[in-house]
Amino acid sequence: MDFLVHGIRYVFPPLFGPIVQGVRTTAYVRPLSDYFPMDVTTMVVWPDPEGSDRGISLCPLYPTVPLAARRDQRLHEALALVDAIRAGSARERELGIKLLQEYFA
């Protein structure tokens, strides 16, 4: 857990790109989306031509993350929390840490 809290942003820095078709991540996925208002103009997605959303692209931790997330909702939520820690605002990061610790408890 310490690595995710303190190191993930440095080992896997967030790389944002253009608006693309993809799979939601960060605060646009539950459980974080329950705490933050949705602004679809700034939605963050992992690029995926089979994704159901459009938004600012965020390079995933691994190329098959969008596929895995579409197949497993719980994994999708956990990976989105990791992305909130890696690429989110201070509030998203803080809440992402708390919620990810609950996932691993």
Describe this structure in words.
By secondary structure, this protein is of the alpha+beta class. Helices cover 44% and strands 18% of the residues. The protein has helices at residues 2-6, 8-11, 65-71, 73-87, 90-104; strands at 16-24, 44-47, 53-58. Strands 1, 2 and 3 form a three-stranded mixed beta sheet that branches. Helix 3 (65-71) crosses helix 4 (73-87) and helix 4 (73-87) packs antiparallel against helix 5 (90-104). It is globular, with a radius of gyration of 12 Å. It starts with a helix and ends with a helix.
Shape: globular
Largest sheet: 3 strands, mixed
Topology as a string of helices (H) and strands (E): HHEEEHHH
The helix content is 40-55%
Number of strands: 3
What is the average per-residue confidence, as pLDDT, rounded to a whole number?
93
Going by helix content, strand content and strand pairing, the class is: alpha+beta
Nearest-angstrom radius of gyration? 12 Å
The N- and C-terminal alpha carbons lie at a distance of 11 Å
What are the low-pLDDT stretches, counting only 5+ consecutive residues below 50?
A: none
How much of the sequence is in beta strands? Answer: 15-25%
Given the structure, what is the number of helices? Answer: 5
